[in-house]
Each structure stands twice: as structure tokens, then as C-alpha cells.
Amino acid sequence: MLIYDLxxxxxxxxxxxxxxxxxxxxxxxxxxxxHLYNSPENFTNLPKSLREKMEEKLTFAPFKVSTYxxxxxxxxxxxxxxxxxxxxxxxxxxxxxxxxxxxQITAAALNSENLRGAKKRRTLCIxxxxxxxxxxxxxxxGQMGFKRHLSSGEIVAQVMFYAQMLKDENELxxxxxxxxxGEPFHNYENTMEAIDRLNDSDGYxxxxxxxxxxxxxxSPQIRRFADEKRQVNLAVSLHEVDxxxxxxxxxxNKRYKIDNVLEACRYYVEQTGRRITxxxxxxxxxxxxxxxxxxxxxxxxxxxxxxxxxxxNPTTGYNGKxxxxxxxxxxxxxxxxxxxxxxxxxxxxxxxGAGCGQLAGSVS
Length: 364
Ligand code: SAH
Ligand code: SF4
Fold this sequence. Notes:
Blueprint: H1 8-17, H2 23-33, H3 48-57, E1 64-70, E2 76-82, E3 88-96, H4 107-111, E4 121-125, E5 129-131, H5 140-144, E6 146-149, H6 152-168, E7 175-178, H7 188-199, E8 211-215, H8 219-227, E9 233-237, H9 243-249, H10 258-272, E10 276-282, H11 290-300, E11 305-311, H12 325-337, E12 342-344
Parallel strand pairs: 4-7, 7-8, 8-9, 9-10, 10-11, 11-12
Antiparallel strand pairs: 1-2, 2-3, 3-4, 5-6
The chain binds S-adenosyl-L-homocysteine and iron/sulfur cluster.
Iron/sulfur cluster binds near residues 132, 135, 136, 139 and 237.
């Protein structure tokens, strides 16, 4: 049994079955999520016999760290995990806001509260599935097909792995995005359970507002998520504004057409009062023209939203090319003139296959 699969009541139940005093579960919970212990031997506050029992009955490492790679600039680290059934998943750490990352920003400015975007961030990009069933043609995970869902504990364990690593460097995880391998809303329960476990104020206490879920646009789950009124950020991968064109690159559009998805998005904004993000991978000559931007602006009109555009990352199975800087800028300008805020995102970790949509569970 993987210890990270247990929520607090299940841990309490287990320790009760083991005839342990009631406070033991709390000690273990705090050890795991506050002190970031990753092996029974770390729990020196527990009797030896109990540590041995934990060693025998519980798994602390759901995967083997197969390999990790650092980008040449040193700000991105990708780790490849091997699950017991040999499936491979990847998770990425991105460091932002360090002086060397932003040469124009001085160390003094880094400490200034009001310099937006310059503050140090440690963002984890986490996987929710091995592979993905959605088949978006431009995405390496989609190209490999669906292997299986990850359990809540397998999702939590990716975070704990990096949290432990950063702790050794006296640093903390500041943001968690579910933008790794897989479609989080296709594995809804396990993803939400993982969030709840990490959010627990007696445990890891990671603020709901610092999570972002990215979905390919599964309308019923967007509505369900809206009804749950979570504080977690939501991003929806749109990439096209015309149904036929979206269908050509995203098979999910057969089931959930653009207007259907956008209706669910409007419902989300109404229910939660939260701004929604739309993701847009800019593909040269495909979805990056001012005409497309103008059409998109009409579709999004009146919705509290923001567009995150990112030049396409290369993958072996798709021969579309990334939009250049100038076209990307024009796309952004066109949207903004029509009243839709847009950010062009920096590409990170491309040299190690750690960019958006490049995770394929392999060493590159
Ligand atoms: N399945 C979810 C989350 C994982 S993908 C989703 O699709 O939203 C995270 C983001 O990377 C999505 O916006 C996805 O569309 C985008 N993406 C996929 N392949 C990409 C590529 N080759 N270049 C840039 N972004 C890509
Ligand atoms: Fe799956 Fe997201 Fe990749 Fe599409 S972009 S195949 S939904 S991981």
C-alpha cells in the first residue's frame, strides 16, 4: 500500500487496526507532509517496532527515479519516474525569477514586492496519467496514447519528490500546475484527491490558489469543477476557434464543440467569480494570424478571461512549426486591442524535451 494514497481518515483507520494510540496517525501525517520524511527510518519519534511495521506494510516510493535532466540554462529540471508496472511518467521543475534567469533584473529588484513576475518561483508541472487518451496531434503525450490513470498517491508523490529536493536547497515549491502528462479531468477523482491531500492545513498546507489545472476542455467536468467552487485556477486548452480546424488537431472536439466548451467556461466564471485562462499553442500559419485572433476575441467577448499563448514546442509526431516572435506579438496585439488580455509565454526546457506537450516518458 502506497502511503501517499491514504488520506488522513484512512491513515487513522489503519493505525487503529494496528492497535496504535490515536495520536500516531497525526505524527505520521506531520512527518510525511510537514517534515517531508520519505522513509520509515526518518520517523525517529515513533517506536522502532512501528517503524518496522511501516517498512513491511507500506510503500514510500511509488516509483524509481529513472533519470533526470537539467536544461542547459539550469532553470528547468525534468525527472523521469518508473512505476512498478514499468510505465514511465515525467514531472518538471521550473525556476523563475532568479537574477541570472533575468539578467535585466538586479538582486535588489528581486526583493522588491512590486516588481511583477520577478519574484522567485518554483513551479512544478505534474502528471496525472501515464500517456493520454485525448490524442491531440501536436502533443507528444497524445502521440504515445493512453497507458493508465495515476492514483492520487502517485500524483502526490511527484510533488513530494521535488519538495524534498528543494528542501535540501532551502527552497519551497511555490506553484503546482497539472500540465504534465495526461488529462486531469479524465482522471478527475484522483486529481482532486491529490489536491485535497496537498492542501490539508495539518499537512503540506499548499494553498488552493497556487494550483492550476489545465484541461483539454471536457465540458461536464468543467461544470462539475465550477459547482465544487474550488479556489484552484483553471486553464482550458483551446488552440483553435473554428470547430473543423480544432477537430483536425484535437479529436476531443468531436464530442465537445467549441461553443459547448465556452458555455461551460462561462458557467465556471459565473459560479466561481474567478478568471479563466485559455491556452493557445501558436502554430505558424495555422492558428496565429490576426484574423484568427480577431475571431477568438469575438468568441471570448465579455468573459473574465486571459489568453496564454505559447509558441508550439517541437514533437516528433507533428510537423507544425512554432510562430516567430513578430507574429506572436501581432496575435497578442490583435487580441488586446479587442479587449482580451494575452501573455506570450516563455518556452522552457525545450532542449531536454521538458516543454509543454513534449513529455513522452522517454529520455531525450
Ligand atoms: N491535458 C491537459 C494538460 C496537459 S498539456 C491539457 O491538454 O490542457 C498542457 C498544455 O500544453 C496544454 O495547453 C496543451 O495544449 C499544451 N501543449 C501540448 N502540446 C504542445 C506543444 N507541442 N507545444 C506547446 N504546447 C503544447
Ligand atoms: Fe492529452 Fe493535453 Fe496532450 Fe491533449 S495536450 S494529448 S489532452 S496531454
